[in-house]
Amino acid sequence: DTGVSQDPRHKITKRGQNVTFRCDPISEHNRLYWYRQTLGQGPEFLTYFQNEAQLEKSRLLSDRFSAERPKGSFSTLEIQRTEQGDSAMYLCASSPRGGRETDTQYFGPGTRLTVL
Amino acid sequence: DQQVKQNSPSLSVQEGRISILNCDYTNSMFDYFLWYKKYPAEGPTFLISISSIKDKNEDGRFTVFLNKSAKHLSLHIVPSQPGDSAVYFCAASGGANFGNEKLTFGTGTRLTIIP
Description:
The complex is a heterodimer. Chain A has no helices and eleven strands. By secondary structure, chain A is mainly β. In chain A, strands 2, 4, 5, 6, 9, 10 and 11 form a seven-stranded mixed sheet that branches. A four-stranded antiparallel sheet of chain A has the order 1-3-8-7, with no helix packed on it. In chain A, a hairpin with a 6-residue loop joins strand 7 and strand 8. Chain B is mainly beta. Chain B has no helices and eleven strands. In chain B, the strands form two sheets. In chain B, strands 2, 4, 5, 9, 10 and 11 form a six-stranded mixed sheet that branches. Chain B is globular and about 40 Å long.
């Protein structure tokens, strides 16, 4: 049984560069979520997909951020022209469809981004 | 505005005793609540959840209590074990019924179990 996986686990980049993260959800989970966590805070919601449709985006997700889930399986989160304030842990989660159990989201290990 | 609050940043408990972690929320639309445990450099791990139609849910050593009138929930761990040392996050959701499935998290409580 494989859980949610994320790649890479760590990314160090220079300000102004573009970065892309990948998330592979638990198989057969229809919903996929992205969160961001900074030091001393809990995870903050960024966006979520049901299958390939992006259903909600947080106002935290500026124009420099874009997320896709083209075939309803894995998802990518791209940050363009990175800024130091983008340094954070980016978490992906997935959940199954149907009933109250859809509210239980299972998280991956995260991608830690450091922008120099 | 912080809709989910964990007012204790840290808690130390003797091994074998009960650990009680508290969480308050302000949004009355929340109807599903979860606790996650997080070790350093890992993603949050789901522990236990409770729907607003219940006031208690138990799973092994973990019990979550919900007091809707006070907008308060708590996680009880008994007996506490050294492996329970981690950061615990409370999270809330409006649930699928409201089309609002995103989780709103508290800031976490760091639990340290003293051997």
